[in-house]
Amino acid sequence: MSETVIKAFLSQGRILSENSDAARSLYNQSRFGSLLPNGLVQFSLAEALYLLEKNRILLFDGKNRLIDADKFLKRAKKSDKNFWVRFCVFRDVRDRGYIVKTALKFGADFRVYDRGVKPGEDHAKWVLFPVHESEVLTWYDFAAKTRVAHSTKKKLLIAVVDDEGDVSYWETRWLRP
Predict the structure, then answer these.
(1) How many beta carbons lie within 10 A of that of residue 151, not counting itself?
(2) Active site residues
(3) SS3 assignment, position 27
(4) Confidence at residue 1, expressed as pLDDT on a 0 to 100 scale
(5) Alpha helices in 7-129 (DSSP H)
(6) Residues 93 and 139 in one domain
(7) Taking the model in full, what pTM does it have?
(8) Rounded (5°) CA angle 152-154-158
């Protein structure tokens, strides 16, 4: 079975799918994007680049010109200086079979669902903070991230990205002695 390539449109910083069964099917099967009441699917920047790299979407700008992955990456980096680090983590986690969603309302970059769990069916298992290996994380920063995870009843996952884009993970959780 071949996968249908979905048309998507970049407009005012948002990436919206065409109104199609294929777009809704992609959402229903693998939870890419957010399903809007009008039947369109809205993708995050990381989801859009991932789907571009996997040849699952064709992305067009407001003048109906095709945007390739490289051009989109340059645009995304302009709007988010930490985008490359975030995207390396997003791609690695998705490639490992997990569903990754934004977690801004939790004060984190991402929330990650265990394999086989879809958002809406159960809660995320981790809150995920991507950092570059050269970043300095103070004990105060670490405590704040741990508190976010604890208050949302999730485990803390810190993803460390090196200069080659490789990712290492560190999981922490509260422990009462």
Answers:
(1) 11
(2) 113, 123, 154
(3) helix
(4) 43
(5) 21-30, 45-53, 69-79, 83-95
(6) yes
(7) 0.92
(8) 115
Do 94 and 136 lie in one domain? The reply is: yes
Tens of pLDDT along 157-176? 999 999 999 999 999 877 77
**What single string gives the DSSP state of each residue in 49-79?**
HHHHHTT-EEEE-TTS-EE-HHHHHHHHHHH
Q: What is the pLDDT of residue 57?
A: 96
Q: Domain of 29: which CATH number?
A: 3.40.1170.20
Q: C-alpha distances in angstroms, 3 versus 47, 57, 111, 118, 148?
A: 17, 10, 27, 21, 38
Residue tagged 């490359």 (tokens): 84
Asked if 112 and 128 count as a contact pair (C-beta separation under 8 A), the reply is yes
* Residue pLDDT, tens place only, 54-104: 999 999 998 999 999 999 999 999 999 999 999 999 999 999 999 999 998
Tell me the residue type at 103. A
Q: pLDDT value at position 120? A: 85
Give residue 128's domain range: 82-172
Question: CA 17 to CA 70: how far, in whole Å?
Answer: 20
For residue range 9-57, what is the model confidence (pLDDT) as tens digits? 998 889 999 999 999 999 999 999 999 999 999 999 999 999 999 999 9
- Check whether residue 106 and residue 165 sit in a common domain: yes
Number of domains forming the structure of the chain: 2
